[in-house]
Amino acid sequence: MLLPGSRLGVMGSGQLARMFCLEAIPFGYEISVYSPEKNSPAAGAGAKEYISTYEDEKALTFFWKI
């Protein structure tokens, strides 16, 4: 079980990620999303965005470590 205050990472930042954020953030979770899309629906719901292509191994490795 992850305690509130934990950071959760989501691949993709569309409407499903947005709905996830809307449920998780009120419980105290920090959400980070990774996608090539700027100003995504998930970011509008309060997620921190990491923007790069899915083929960028360096960026993906950085995202996995946060």
Automatic annotation (TrEMBL):
Highest taxon listed in the record's lineage: Bacteria
Any one of the GO CC terms: cytosol
Domain PurT/PurK-like preATP-grasp stretches: 7-63
UniProt-listed Pfam families: RS_preATP-grasp-like
The protein, known as: Phosphoribosylaminoimidazole carboxylase ATPase subunit domain protein
Organism, as annotated: Leptospira interrogans serovar Icterohaemorrhagiae str. Verdun HP
